[in-house]
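We store sequence, tokenised fold; for instance:
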Amino acid sequence: MFASDGGQPSSSRNARRDLAVMLAVSLAVFTSFLAMLGSAPHTWRLRGVVTLWNLPFADLGNILAGARCATQGMDVLVQNPCDPLHRAMNYPRVWLVIARALGATSPIVPGITLAGLFYVSAAFLPRMATPSRVLLWLLALSSPAVTLAVERGNNDLVVFVLSLPALALLRKGALARHAAGGLLLLVSVLKLFPGIGLLLLPRKSALGRVGWSYPALFIVYLAITYRDVLAIVARVPHEVLMSFGGATTIAMFMDLLFGVRVGGEVLLPLGCVLAVGLVGFGILWGRRGPTREREDVEARPHLAYAVLLFVASFSLGSSYDYRLVVLLLALPTALDAATGAIGPGVCRLGRWVALLILLSLWSGGRFPGLPSFLGKALLLLDMAATPMLVFALVALAIRLYLPAPRVDLR
């Protein structure tokens, strides 16, 4: 499946063909999703997705409900009775402004629109549409993690859609980099955790210190809204079976193997230690690779951005599986590495990263009717896939973006 696709640049005709193929794949997955709207919860479970009381686009609906309650003077970060499930809104208040601007009372039309934008945007990522890549891309877009994000109408899809043009602009001139900084700052304001991605901005340009200005603005925003940030963090739900992260990994390990449930006050620091250890080993492993030419981060910003956001999400302790959509940004570079398009020194590592991305996207699914031993095997795979991916992604990024040591320590 990971046979070499060749490293030569595609012609303009081939590029148009590749885009057409990937758009067709995205359209097929989007159509299959639309066909399932309104289906019973057990039907969604066949795709590994757990719905919320058969409420399509429930996360988007939570924001629209929050906008209605906010007009009645309620603090929706504390209570949100307009939501069918009475869930407090755990997103920055800027979403209330967006919801009022939409003027929608039902999440159906905005949810379908957001899903369509997401699938179309995803089609612009891959290159060299060989049969193996088409199959892998189809598997990725159809995975439970991605389907969960689309079914919930979660605003991580907005992060994905807005980040793509920003990452493309990073490879342009100084003015384009300012536009990229503005888009990445907007994404950070909307969702907070993507603020780590602002570290990708170049430190200097012809128009000034781009790299420091946007992170500084984000820090000012956090300082101004720190009460809201604390309220959001306090009300973020934690669900082990549909989540990933350092604390989630340890909780699953203790429960599955020993039948012990550890409290959150212990899990969070242990999860942070696990994340730091995985990143550290990834850095060491990456630097042990064969000597190769250093690749500029700006040439492949999608991988670097995905690594930053994924590692940050893992380090937070627990993030819902829909946040794994960020891994789609890393998949094309992983496939380039796996097929030798980047160089011989990263082929094996690229194959592992591509495989672990697919396992991470699929292993969190909950499928009914599985024999008990297969269900337990899936849980064990879910427990192992994302920690291994943290290690492998960091190693691949180090191998690509940093010069390898002159002495091979192996």
